[in-house]
């Protein structure tokens, strides 16, 4: 597994890097079969250290964790515990599905846009109904089953996930509803 351990305006020493690699590799190897890479970023927010970790698995799923603490090692340890909890849940769900994925998740390219929000809400009619595009970037859309998409959404901690349904040939969406349940949009056609 490739590790990228960086600090935002913080000097990351060799001892911390060794600690991170040892502890994270123990957790990841325990719960994930083929991790590809890990990205760990340390930063400082006021008097606290912040540790953010992202682990990419060969199945296409991504696990993310973030923790704060007054000591840098404690921040990593808290982040590592959250990562272990996510990977444990992920492994349990994979066992519940009784299906092993032999091939990595197929990813399809797409464009992602950031649109300008209305600065102030006014009663006046806007000049144009076309939104102003602030940024454009490439993104990847995974080809997953509905269960894997729900799992990926929960692992990433995002409210919505667009994916290509493996069972069909179209784009689907899973999202967290206000009542706490999961919604699934499966267009017909």
Automatic annotation (TrEMBL):
Any one GO MF annotation of this record: ribosomal small subunit binding
All residue ranges annotated as the Sigma 54 modulation/S30EA ribosomal protein C-terminal domain in the record: 130-183
Subcellular location: Cytoplasm
GO terms (BP aspect): negative regulation of translational elongation
Xref: SUPFAM superfamilies: Ribosome binding protein Y (YfiA homologue)
InterPro entries: HPF/YfiA_ribosome-assoc, HPF_long/plastid, RHF-like, RHF/RaiA, Ribosom_S30AE_C, Ribosom_S30AE_C_sf
Record-level GO cellular component terms: cytosolic small ribosomal subunit
Keywords: Cytoplasm, Translation regulation
Domain of life: Bacteria
Principal localisation: cytoplasm
Protein's job: Required for dimerization of active 70S ribosomes into 100S ribosomes in stationary phase; 100S ribosomes are translationally inactive and sometimes present during exponential growth.
Family stated for the protein in its record: Belongs to the HPF/YfiA ribosome-associated protein family. Long HPF subfamily.
PANTHER family for the chain: 30S RIBOSOMAL PROTEIN
SUBUNIT field: Associates exclusively with 100S ribosomes, which are dimers of 70S ribosomes. Interacts with 100S ribosomes.
This protein's name: Ribosome hibernation promoting factor
Organism: Shimia thalassica
């Amino acid at each position: 597994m490739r590790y990228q351990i960086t600090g935002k305006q913080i000097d990351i020493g060799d001892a911390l890097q060794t600690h991170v690699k040892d502890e994270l590799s123990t957790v990841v190897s325990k719960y994930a079969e083929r991790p590809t890479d890990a990205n760990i970023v340390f930063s400082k927010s006021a008097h606290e250290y912040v540790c953010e970790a992202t682990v990419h698995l060969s199945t296409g799923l991504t696990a993310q964790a973030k923790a704060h603490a007054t000591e840098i090692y404690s921040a990593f340890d808290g982040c590592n515990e959250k990562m272990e909890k996510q990977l444990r849940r992920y492994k349990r769900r994979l066992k519940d599905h009784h299906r092993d994925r032999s091939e990595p998740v197929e990813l399809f390219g797409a464009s992602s846009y950031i649109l300008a929000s209305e600065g102030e809400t006014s009663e006046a009619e806007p000049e144009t109904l076309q939104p102003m595009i602030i940024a454009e970037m490439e993104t990847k859309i995974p080809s997953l089953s509905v269960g894997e998409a729900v799992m990926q959404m929960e692992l990433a901690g995002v409210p919505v996930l667009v994916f290509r349904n493996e069972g069909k040939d179209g784009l689907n969406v899973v999202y967290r509803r206000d009542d706490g349940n999961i919604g699934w949009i499966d267009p017909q056609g």
